[in-house]
Amino acid sequence: IAGITQAPTSQILAAGRRMTLRCTQDMRHNAMYWYRQDLGLGLRLIHYSNTAGTTGKGEVPDGYSVSRANTDDFPLTLASAVPSQTSVYFCASSALAGDNTGELFFGEGSRLTVL
Amino acid sequence: GQNIDQPTEMTATEGAIVQINCTYQTSGFNGLFWYQQHAGEAPTFLSYNVLDGLEEKGRFSSFLSRSKGYSYLLLKELQMKDSASYLCAVRDSNYQLIWGAGTKLIIKP
Questions:
Q1: What is the pLDDT of residue B74?
Q2: Do A53 and A65 meet the contact criterion of CB atoms below 8 Å apart?
Q3: Less packed terminus of chain A by CB within 10 Å, N or C?
Q4: What angle do CA A59, A90, A100 make, to 5 degrees?
Q5: How confident is the model at residue A1 (pLDDT cuts 50, 70, 90)?
């Protein structure tokens, strides 16, 4: 089944540790995104990539880094986790081309707790 | 700054109709989206409006007025499975999505 796969689904992490959240899509979408979702707040964009080989900063990029070596994979790395990075992280993709709406397709989310 | 406003929570009765409003102030406009998100799950796409007017899709309809910076999502014949959060998002002039905090819809029997 085509879609977006995120891993891990859930993780508890000690503050100061490095963590990489994985995201893979098989829809050949050119654009990919990482969001965090916190209670009472809208989805906030961390980083995005409009095409393989390029990345950009979103609304809340500090403490996070991404890479886009190929079309399918878009990992998110927390170099040194802090408790404020406790959140649910969603990876998403969209096809930014042609007459499509550019709707986002989301992965199932990664729940991260930093202690 | 850019802002999306929608009610935090709404309650409605099974079988009834509910309207969820969304107002926005953004730098440019390139479309408005509604997503549904069940608790503990990922958001899923419901509707897209880029021109003024009503878009109907089964029990769900979405309306847009660009001059008023206003949209609503109309849900008819409510079912218990419609209990979810409904997220309004606007694509700005940079083609980035600005998200509202979501409206939690509670359906009572």
A1: 98
A2: no
A3: N
A4: 85
A5: low
Q: Cβ contact (<8 Å) for A42 and B95?
A: no
Q: Identify which of B48, B98, B100 has the shortest CB distance to residue A103.
A: B48
* Mutant choice from B27, B49, B97 vs A, greatest count of A C-beta within 10 A: B97
For residue A20 the two structure tokens come to 């990489």
H helices of chain B, where? none
Test mutation, A104, A105, A108, A111, chain B, max B CBs within 10 A? A104
Q: What is the 3-state secondary structure (H, E, C) of A11-61?
A: EEECCCCCEEEEEEECCCCCEEEEEEECCCCCCEEEEEECCCCCCEECCCC
- Ranges of residues in chain B whose predicted pLDDT is under 50: none
Handedness of CA A23, B33, B99, B30 (dihedral sign): positive
Q: How many CB atoms lie within 10 A of CB B82?
A: 20
Pairing of strands B103-108, B9-13: parallel
